[in-house]
Amino acid sequence: MGSSFAALVRPFVPLAEAMGVPGAVLIAQAVLESGAGRSGLARLGRAWFGIKAGPQWRGAVYSGTTRE
What we know:
By secondary structure, the chain is an all-alpha fold. 46% of the residues lie in helices and 0% in strands. It contains four helices and no strands.
């Protein structure tokens, strides 16, 4: 895992832990689902967990092609 990816994920650890998710689990899941920050969704959309938005979502979105 590159140090730049760790630096991007690290600020979210306290938020996850406040919700009962161990920080190590948050980091491990981000590494697994984003290819350690190397996937297109991670690099271009800053989407480390592959979470998809439905039509009711009003925030920012990234649209790209995935292999599922």
